[in-house]
Write a structure and sequence with these properties.
With 269 residues, this protein is of the alpha+beta class. The protein folds into 2 domains: 25-159, Peptide Deformylase; 175-268. The protein has 6 helices and 5 strands. It has a 5-stranded antiparallel beta sheet, sandwiched between helices.
Amino acid sequence: MIREIVTYPTPPSVEYATDVRVFNEEIFSLIEDMKDTIGANSLNALAAFQIGSYYNVVVVKKEQGGDFLELINPRIISQRGKVTTVEKTAYFPGLSAKITRYETISLVYQDRFGNQHSLKADGDFSILLQRKIDYTFGSSFLNKLSKEEKKIFTKKLEFGSDVAISESCPTVFKRDYIIKAINALMLAMIILLIGSLFVSDETLTQFWQYQTYLFYGVLVLNVIYFFYAQYEGKRFISCTSCQIGNIIGTSVISLIKLSVIMLLSYFII
């Protein structure tokens, strides 16, 4: 059965996951649900916590053959080397963080029949296992972040975005190009307005049609600017408040200019 995946802000267990002592149908059913959920969500692995169970169980999808590795009561017994990677997890959907992990680990675990096994893992497999075993200790990769990386990730959580976050306001934004396009179209409207004073009545109809097209073009660009500017502003947390005021002010001024030009066009053209 496919189960719902637990996501932030639901906290991991504040206590260690409950070790499996009785290997019965309840555990087998849990493992099968974990496999179904992994397949349905195209995941590499799940800890039991991630589908709402506090049993100490981790299931990993093998790279070949579509089989699964079932780890019951896993414990890391040794580790070697350090490596820094960028990780993602279903617990923080859509977000990533830079984390320092052990490069190689050795662990012991039991299978569904209670038999003891040992395993040595390195590279991506080692990192994947460490991330899932974190959940069995009431933790997530948030607790593994450096002070600086945690600061960045906290901002990502706040805004629900994985885009790079800058601590200083840039002097030039991409949204400025939208403003330039708006100004260029309004300049064309002013030129048409002035030109209408020197043309025949026959041509005025054509001028009014062009003016209408330009009006809608500027209107659409203003809407695009307003929403894109807010999205872009969220990337620069340290000056978000001043940017919001600037975005609103720029949009209002632009619309006032557009209204004045269109009003004059209505009476003149």
